[in-house]
Queue: 2 jobs
Job 1
Amino acid sequence: DRPIIGPGSLPSELFAARSRSHKIPVRGQKDFFPNDSDEQRQRLEQSLNEHWSLISEERVEKLGNLVKATWIPSEQIVELQSPAGKFWQTMGFSAKGKQFLLPEEALYLMECGNVQVFYRDLPLSIQDGYEKFLSSSTVSLQQYQVFGHLKRLGYVVHRFHPSSEPSSYARQLNLPQCRDRAGRQLKRKRSASEEEEKRPESHLTMSPETSSTQTATASSAHKGGGRTWWMTDVLRDRPDQRPASRTSRWDFSSIPFPDLGSQKCLSSCLASPDPSLLPGSLAVGVCDIALWTRKINLREVKMSSKEQKREEDKRRRRWDVNKDREVQQCTNWAEYRKLLARRQGKRKGRPEHLWDREVTPLHDPRQPIPTGELLDKISVIESTHLLEGASRLKGSDDWRICFNVYQPDSVADFKKSNPGKPYSRMCVCSFDGPVPDLRAIKLLSFQSGDIPVVFAVVDHGDISFYTFKDFQLPTDVYP
Amino acid sequence: FFTKAPAKSGILGRNNLKKRLRNSGGTVSNRNLCDSAPLLWRVGDLRSVRAQGLVGALLGALPRTPRQNVRLGRPLLLLPEEERLLTERHVTPPHIRCVVVCVQDGGVELQVQQYQEAQQRSYEEQSVLALEDRKSALLRAMTSSPTDESLQRRLVALESSFSFPRSAMAVQLSTARAGLSYCADARDFLRADWPIRAQDEPRRAARYQVFRDLRGRGFYLTSAGKFGGDFLVYPGDPLRFHAHFIAVCVSLDESLSLLDILAVSRLGSNVKKTVLLCSPGTDGRVAYTSLQWSGMV
């Protein structure tokens, strides 16, 4: 199997390459220290020759095995011209009746020799792919290194979009999730002329997301003040149009809902809601709730006969304090309290020097208390967990999750429309940069939900993976 | 299939640049800036860089076995120290960009035409080769069993009925760009941000001095992020030797806490490498301190 060197191989060489071996030679044992022996020199030469032969070998494929595609720089996307192969199960997306690949997916498939990408009718080299497809608006070189590394190991790797991750509240309600890869990709490209990031993530404001996805035919009515309530899907000409992208984010913990049932609701009027919570130009004035409060049943809940009996029994067994002669002798509350204090002291003999001061013992040993609560009482440091306070953190540009990673053994059943929960999420950084601080870790863990966040640290050719796990010190409490 | 089309109008013809540089005595290393990262694509460049004792790091999939991470292929990424050393040794200006040749539309059409013609020629040649291949296979079969008449008939039929489908043609997916790049617009050349190195200038200068000194002594160096150091130091080519040292660059007046020294020593002993604290001095020399974990004697 002759290696093919150089970009312009002869047709005879290409033809011969079809029956090339696909094995790489195994590397032998290394030497410890260089001496000037011939043996070492020979082995080095052999290793180097093998190295150059492997490095200079070019990819040769049968035309029929290659999927043809075109690079579309305006959309930063690769469009397939011939039907996709096996890779379609885990990569790419459909839109406007055509098949597309993300730039990093296309580059990876080029490196595997599965796809040939053309631009202006000429095939792109791998070098062209690296230079054209990798950028700050797509995927950076370091992120692509991690992407490629994981894909070569067999993982399924998709881009992470924080806006498509449900909030903890939405997850609690078990709301269905929107899997709209197509809309997201093409949507982003069209908004390239507008702000890059119009989605406040942790910085959750009251306003619904402004639609950044106007179609090319957007009229002036859509600009400026006229905010649309529902996110219009950018692909208006699609027959299967989705009604609304579920990408609006509401921070329910900070939107106060009026509590009409509470006894404290004295006024018969409700103030008008924040106009930013309302659709369009709807204006709502002050609301008279007198009618509603009348409708609300404010009566006490009637107990069943069994419950009533139970309450009566309890009352009967309780000792009636009014029958106590000493209590009857008290003329006012102050005296009664003094009587109680005396009784307490006498009865149990609580040492005065401990209990009659400003600073009293933390707990009265005569009071029953579970061990766990007691330990909490005497603890000086409160234990916390990783996500505490995380929802209040505002997002930053320094740290963000890039990819969702799904396990290789799920490939056979993998569905792009419903990938399920990822195995982990990747955040790409390098040893040149700072170590993630607690704030960054909290922020990313919160964004990620219950999926562990892995930091892929790129060091030139090497990638190291780190993850931070929450850990609780065990408390020896056995109820 | 890329012929060197003459540059119609352009910023700088790559050929011209090469000529000028060769005349001034330097050798050309074609480094392309992808994400502002120094990447080498041509085998010749990789060889010349290795010949200077610079290892770099391969980032791409290996064409022969693309779905594994043990051995990677082109491009080669250079360390910032390697790039700087090359720049110091050559005449090539440090900020050479991917040479973009502005080719007018006529040029692009010509290239497409040439490409398609080359593909057609390749197809025709491969058809001929395929037919010969089949014939010789049949002939071999015939010599081993000469009485088999069906083989004779097949041989005759072959000439007339043989067809080589286009889909069977072998096609090359080039790694490096061939000849001159034809990107029509300078705008098309995407430049993303290489993550801004948080390292301050004195730190970078210290690293470079240590790198240059060790390289000058014949050692080979690669990056050592996951070993908690700056460089891994090999006594010879990494293809054949294990690294002996983990070099950690520390400035002479920097005070180290004992815990840091313990941590890095512990790391070194776990991976059976000696930790080398390297401090460039003012006279251009570098002071080396090795850490050895030993017990009480």
Note: Chain A has a mean pLDDT of 78.
Job 2
Amino acid sequence: MSAAACQSLQAQGFTLKAYMKNSKVVGPPSAGAFAERPAKPTAFRKFYERGDFPIALEHDTKGNRIAWKVEIEKLDYHHYLPLFFDGLCETVHPYEFFARQGVHDMLEHGGSKILPVIPQLIIPIKNALNTRKRPVICTTLKVLQHLVVSGEMVGEALVPYYRQILPILNIFKNSNRNSGDGIDYSQQKRENIGDLIQETLEAFERHGGEDAFINIKYMVPTYESCMLN
Amino acid sequence: MTSVATKSYDHLGLGDGPKPKSMVRAKRWSEEVENAFRFQTAGYRDEIEYKIIMKIEPERWPVEPGYVKKLQRRDGTYYYYNRGRECQDKEVHKIKLYQY
């Protein structure tokens, strides 16, 4: 018998070819749930390069701090906060630093100005999480934890949008490294995605009001309450 | 929003600004070191110099222990600081504490 005849044919499952004697059924192609996706060019980068942000771009700035040209209390949050959130997709310095630090400063000092802007933040948050890039996801999760405590009712205002932002958390929730009895330094540096997701969901539940848990459970079925029982 | 911790510097006679008599480097972190860190990051010696140059009280967090919240730099830009401690242990030895 010739070698060619002995070679098995590769066939997709549930096809007539799969029934042939020397066919070997191969599994379906990988769906790519964890594959990183390239981020679109962000509006943050465009505005930054045009100099439209009220940020002083100085090289003598010490440490990790932004020098603001305008007082944060006087900024139009409806315009600037979604732009800074859009920059969370960035991974390149200095865009990544300014976006992250800018979001932090605006949330820290926003007070009641943050709540009305929540609906405009959902798309940038979703875009950042959908990149599936681990550093971007870690940064976004920390931003979400800060967001829910940044103002009154913000946590509850996020509940209707869980169905848009939690599916990605469901994918990465078990992304924990089993290092045995070794030390996982990513936990110390808060870069372990699985742990960060757990912290974020607990923050959502604590600040999301009565309906938060059931909505989280609907999107992330393996999540267990940190407040009940 | 009133300052939680305010000091009176009238007894120092801040007309033209007093000059510090001595300086020591901080060895351990404390609330005084934390505030000094915030002023020095913004380019001032300490709170006294800030008040002389800017002629305003620095804005502080209303929660205890009332660290500095916002400072205006000499070039007109603003620095904002967190509620909690920001000065890392590795930076404590760089902080200068001035005595008058």
Note: Chain A touches chain B at residues 56, 62-63, 65, 67-72, 105, 108-109 (CB under 8 Å).
